[in-house]
Fold these 2 entries.
Entry 1:
Amino acid sequence: MSRLFKASVIENRQVIKNHFLLTLHPLDNIGKPRPGNFFMISVDNCLDPLLKRPFSIHRWLGRDFQILYRVAGKGTSILSNRKPGDTLEIIGPLGNAFPSLRSNNKIIMVAGGLGIAPILGLAETINKYRPLCFYGARTHEELLCIDELISLGIEPVISTDDGSLGEKGNIVDVLKKYLSSQLPPPPRFCLYACGPGPMLIALSDLAKTFNLKGYIALEQNMACGLGTCLGCVVNTTDGYKRVCREGPVFPINEVIWE
Amino acid sequence: MNLTTNLGKLKLKNPVMTASGTFGYGKEYSEFIDLNNLGAIVVKGISLKPMKGNPDPRICETPCGMLNAIGLQNAGLKEFIKQQLPYLRNFNTKIIVNILGTSINEYIELAENLEAAGVDAIELNVSCPNVKKGGIVFGTDIKIFEELIRDVRRRTRLPLITKLSPNTADIKLFAKAAEDAGSDIISLINTITGMSINIKTRRSRLANITGGLSGPAIRPVAVRMVWECFKTVKVPIIGMGGIISAEDAIEFILAGASAVAVGTANFVNPIATLDILEGIKSFMSGNNIKSLKELTGTVKC
Ligand SMILES: Cc1cc2nc3c(=O)[nH]c(=O)nc-3n(C[C@H](O)[C@H](O)[C@H](O)COP(=O)(O)OP(=O)(O)OC[C@H]3O[C@@H](n4cnc5c(N)ncnc54)[C@H](O)[C@@H]3O)c2cc1C
Ligand SMILES: Cc1cc2nc3c(=O)[nH]c(=O)nc-3n(C[C@H](O)[C@H](O)[C@H](O)COP(=O)(O)O)c2cc1C
Ligand code: FES
């Protein structure tokens, strides 16, 4: 078993404009990824782009696994053109994972946009605890995994920026309303979140206001994914920490936003 | 086939080493390669006191390369000797420590302590472009550059490598100065200062604004500089800058390098060093080359 392996593309399907679901079949035995872990994927064997790209584990299918990604630039654009049967070089699983919860906590999963990628995988492992799920996107088309969540017995609270589905506005405001409506003493909520920077910042403020615990999955530019280049750090109350190694999942109150 | 590589009194089992700052302290890579097979491990730059490094973002990718402004983050000499060195000592390979300081005395203290701790060689990082008070001054002002090397030379018996910065008008002058001041070996090149701007935000893509460019993008510059230095000095040269394949390594050797260091390629492919070593071996057997000495500096001009 090695964390450096090759995988063949089973399917690389466009789900909506610019968003793809990639199913990979590892050609060697790999370790079972935990929700929050990520893989460094070589989109092509070329000099530009040079570095591997980090992607969260979306779903683990026993041996095959899935990545849900958005075309953001050159690397992901090349990736979106890879065909079934192509082989990709990959390192992983890497990083830490969402911590297993204590039973007396009520989990609230919060996903913004493609932040659903790791959150769905998390939902699959914790749905027995009946977590709540708050899920926002720009428009209803970009709400990607609603059916999957429902089939796990999780009815997500939804918002869209344009109001095309669910509440109009951002998901942190929706969550705030929900929390404010809870009569004291509130259940012991714990947030598990992934999404764009502004959402995570708003969520950190919310966690402070309501004195909630929580964990957030962060992104940062990466070169090695292994902890050696020291390029992927974020500032925390305990100094700079590597997103690829001490993260990508951090306690929400530990991250210092600039 | 003889792969042993003599860099003056520093004897390596083969010519492939790691470039400082791209291999951590070895541990992370031991999962992928047998560290015993490396010619040498050059560890991340060490300073006397811990350094916390630069704010993020610290890296970004550019065509065929990357910019970094790590800011020399490291846990400091004491931690290195206590936490990292004992692990590295488990392997049958040379351990070379890259050091950096803000004064000559700091370099001396580092060298003396590391000699006492039993490392195999010292690499003077006089060329890191990131910390304003540090490297850039020593690496670009030839007078204090010479003074630094001379003073460290007097205080250690370890093989002394001076790592040259490409960010000078004429690298040959620094190569010569390093040799004259008693450096046993020179290594080059460190990263080339660069900058990349996000045109949407109109901000630099690095918090530090500028960073050091590495990777295949800098290889032709590095090969040229190795060739110029080879013609100027007699001390052996460790060549680096954008090496990702055995062919690249051989290019450096033809230009005048006696050994090569692999940097950014470790990020792309964690087994790059040993892939390159294997490639060098097959090049040698394919071309009936008994020892790399036959090749060093033999580019036809
Ligand atoms: C731990 C982790 C998990 C991730 N999981 C996913 C995922 O599940 N699905 C998904 O679509 N994306 C994910 N990303 C982001 C993804 O890695 C980037 O979108 C991708 O690297 C962009 O590559 P590119 O060559 O297409 O874009 P580039 O041309 O390199 O850049 C395009 C844009 O993407 C940004 N970018 C580049 N690299 C990164 C990066 N490493 N992280 C964040 N932004 C970056 C750049 O700043 C730029 O704005 C994850 C990132 C991290 C660090
Ligand atoms: C992330 C990173 C960190 C580096 N840190 C150091 C360092 O601490 N000391 C040093 O002398 N060089 C450092 N370097 C420079 C490399 O050792 C090497 O000289 C340079 O990257 C060129 O080689 P490459 O193109 O193979 O990477 C660093 C390079 C990178 C990319
Ligand atoms: S990506 Fe290199 S240390 Fe995290």
Note: Residues 106-251 of chain A form a domain with the Rossmann fold fold (CATH 3.40.50.80).
Entry 2:
Amino acid sequence: MEFINTLVNGLNIGVIYAMIALGYTMVYGIAKMLNFAHGDIIMVGGYTIYVFCAMKAASSPAFFFVAIAMAVIVCTLLGVIVEKVAYKPLRGASPLAVLITAIGVSYLLQSLSQIIFKSATKFVSVPELGKVSIGAVSIKVSTIITLVVSIAVMISLSLFVKYSKTGRAMIAVSEDRGAAQLMGINVNSIITITFAIGSALAALAGLFYLLQSPYIYNTFGAMPGIKAFTAAVIGGIGSIPGAMLGSIVLGMIESICDSIAPIAPYKDAIEFSILIIILLVRPTGILGKKRREKV
Amino acid sequence: MTLLKVENLEVYYGVIRALKGISFEVGEGEIVTLLGANGAGKTTTMQSIMGLIHARSGSVTYDGKNITGLPSHKIVRMGMTQVPEGRRVFSELTVYENLLMGAYIEKDKAKIRHDIEEIYSVFPRLDERKNQVAGTLSGGEQQMLAMGRAMMSHPKLLMLDEPSMGLSPLLVDQVFDIIKHFHSTGTTILLVEQNASKSLAISDRAYVLENGAIAYSGTGKELSESDDIKKAYLGG
Ligand SMILES: Nc1ncnc2c1ncn2[C@@H]1O[C@H](COP(=O)(O)OP(=O)(O)OP(=O)(O)O)[C@@H](O)[C@H]1O
Ligand SMILES: [Mg+2]
């Protein structure tokens, strides 16, 4: 049953990366920027859950849902505010200026969390969920929740982008901002919506990490952020299915590395090497396409 | 009545002065052509009218309102849009979805359905290809789609930037027929073209842009008979 464990574990890691990678890829596709502060939104979501769980009614499952809802709300607002305050004034500025600003925002959020919560790792009293046995395999309930919620979110997001008016406007803006404006689309509000969705998904990623391991610290979002960014690039940055596929691929690789004791310590190095190899073979990532040259 | 009035419009790209303070106007119900060689500043003019490029100075008045500096999406809502140079259809979206995008400012779903049917009746080819992604359409079909998409917002003023570019003679004729059709349904047209003979033939008035300044203006007939214009734009 080792194989099934590796598979489930890989999917689990992969769908969490997907929750983060979708934010990177949508913001890249629509706002044409790399939001390096995206990982830190996960951290803010984690601390929000920590604060609510630290309140007295902590272990009550009903209250835990309030904590989750608050994390989603706080992250969504934070994402939108960061975009308005830090990135919007730089619309049309050089990509390097935007990138440096994003790194600055990342440090700002980490430093703020250090000032507010200090630098010691905190235990988060998330509800104990236990395990269930299906035949010969036993799976953690938290893993099942992570898989079910993430897959539902990915399906909903895909349907939203394909069939809603706002979703199609997102595709239009990512393809040709000027032509989209000629349709009467307000590009700024589409960018705001994109940041809101990406940040809400980051909050969910923070939740899933805490369900796996209930500890929060200032750089909680850093490694997941980099890994998910890697996944987005492997899948083809800017592409929504690409971010999902790249994340599952990366999660599987990570899980396989984990399952083979001698190479497990080198899993990060292996993952980043695979990124480099994929970029050498296919610079646009697995599902990314070359920008069509305009006539 | 004047629908669009451009006054002393001046546009820079860095230090390059692409428009040197041009003025012209389009009356309601007219077809007006802006002629000019490559690099004369035609696209720059169109884009700055639509708010896609910011003018250094000068003003644009539409329907009596000063729209200088207004964001493009607001200008579209006032009843003006553009078929941009190079079509710029959304290549990942289907023909049908592109037309839906054209109706982005319309809320009434029944009206959108009706309008799409109307576009299909003007362009039967688009009906045949409605579920095909626009990136795989031929150049001519993309031009039809770009025109249909623009008409979905029911503009009072439609601007077209070189709609005949790169098309076979037969398709060029079709494009001009369609422009005349849109005009006959009450749309005012501002046309940018290098195909001088065809565009002058359907125009009430025309302006000639040279190096970012208006060099000539007159009725379509006057300009098509002028020796200077014949030499420079009509190949003889
Ligand atoms: N983004 C830009 N940056 C710098 N210069 C530009 C830019 N766009 C246009 N120009 C310059 O401005 C001038 C006018 O360009 P514009 O595209 O308006 O010409 P046009 O009349 O539309 O030409 P064409 O018939 O080739 O489309 C040209 O000299 C061009 O090189
Ligand atoms: Mg041009």
Note: Chain B touches chain A at residues 47, 50-52, 71-73, 76-77, 81-82, 84, 86-93, 97, 100-102, 104-105, 135, 139, 149-150, 153, 165-166 (CB under 8 Å).
